[in-house]
Every structure is written in structure tokens, then in C-alpha cells.
Specification:
The protein is mostly beta strands. It has one domain. It has one helix and five strands, in the order E-E-H-E-E-E. The strands form two sheets. Strands 1-2-5 form a three-stranded antiparallel β-sheet, with no helix packed on it. Strand 3 and strand 4 form a beta hairpin. The protein starts with 17 loop residues before the first strand and ends in a 19-residue tail after the last strand.
Length: 90
């Protein structure tokens, strides 16, 4: 059985501030706030900006103010991007 990619090895998660020291949860930088990913088109409709076309999940908050997703190191994500550590950078 193949291991699924998890946040603990993702470049969008590692080296970020730990939000919960007891569980090790951190903010996922790959999952943007939907309000930041939308723009108005010429017909005054809200549309997704082209640079976000490949994003599979967004944070949404009904207040329209702020939202984020905090995950644990063992959370599986389909948008995982393997962290590569350059020699001599650690």
C-alpha cells in the first residue's frame, strides 16, 4: 500500500507558525481564502481569477472577513507539494 502525501512533508505547510502546540496544527498556505481568489468580470459577476484555476479547495467564511484551514501533520491532501530541502540549508 502506498502512503498518501501528508502535511508533514508539504512545502505549503512546513516551516509555518504552529497554531496549536498540543496538536501541532498549522495553517495550509495552499488553500486560499475564496474572497482573495475572486474578481469582478465586465458583467459584474464574481469569477475565479485565472491563477487559482488549479486549486481544488478554498477557505470560506460567511462573514467575508477571514478564513483559514489548520491541519495536523497527518492530514492527507490531494494538493500536496513535496518539500525539498536543499543541501546546506538546514
Amino acid at each position: 500500500m502506498t502512503d498518501h502525501p501528508k502535511c508533514a512533508t508539504c512545502k505549503h505547510w512546513l516551516n509555518k507558525e504552529i497554531h496549536s502546540k498540543s496538536s501541532g496544527r498549522r495553517k495550509c498556505e495552499k488553500m486560499p481564502y475564496i474572497e482573495d481568489a475572486m474578481e469582478w468580470d465586465e458583467d459584474r459577476n464574481r469569477i475565479l481569477m485565472p491563477k487559482y484555476k488549479d486549486i481544488m479547495a478554498f477557505c470560506i467564511d460567511v462573514s467575508g472577513y477571514h478564513a483559514q484551514v489548520d491541519t495536523s501533520p497527518d492530514f492527507y491532501c490531494a494538493m500536496h507539494s513535496e518539500l525539498t530541502i536543499k543541501k546546506g540549508s538546514v
